[in-house]
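User: My instructor asked us to take a sequence, write out its structure as tokens, and then describe one feature of it. I'm not sure where to start. Here is the sequence I was given:
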Amino acid sequence: MLAERRHQLILRALRSGGPASVTDLSEQLGVSPATIRRDLVRLEEDGLLTRVHGGAVVDEGDQPFAEVAEVRVSEKDAIAAHAAAMVSDGQSVLLDIGTTAFRLARQLHGRRLTVITSNLVVYEELADDEGIELVLLGGMLRREYRSLVGFLTEDNLRQLHADWLFLGTSGVRPGGQVMDTTVVEVPVKRAMIKAGDRVVLLADAAKFPGTGMAKVCGPEDLDVVVTNAPADPVTRSSLEEAGVEVVEAGKVQE
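Assistant: Let's start with the prediction itself. The structure tokens for your sequence are:
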């Protein structure tokens, strides 16, 4: 494999899955750990990532939607299926940006619901479903991530109410704080939280701890976390102490 191609795959893995170890990257790409270490040194010199103990991390906020949508699809579908089952016909649903929210939208076809979103991919998915009342929030377009942001989006949200908010994240800290890599999305997410009766965080295993420099909210603002794997014990304890229900998608709840 050419070095340039390896570099592309390394950056894609770090952008979509958060911090990764040299061993993980070596196994994913089928090359030696020594080769990965040399690649990480070169990419850090180019300012494209930061090396950390045993691996590397990329903290980029504006990842192309199409690129992120290709990873961990089965995990996102498991989370989406569980989330869809939480909603009753006749209710209103607020869907955040992100690829897991898109997978959830695909589970809502044929339902009698109101769906509110700033996610253009969700809009495109549901636009022809006549059983769904679809509300598209206004705002400035983020072309790469197919979302609408800004004061117009926030103003729209102040005039709306939803039974459910399904929220995405870049990472969840051990204290239960929900983080995002893109500062411009944070005010919209906070406005969504205020507009939703029940707030459900959709977070696959890669989001613990994931990435993100901007705090969206604390665990006290969440009602439920739906994930595809057990959160680490410290994070789970922080969430449960704040009264958050942690649900593992696909696992029978007692």
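For the description part of your assignment, you could build on this observation: The chain has ten helices and 15 strands. Try explaining in your own words what that tells you about the chain.
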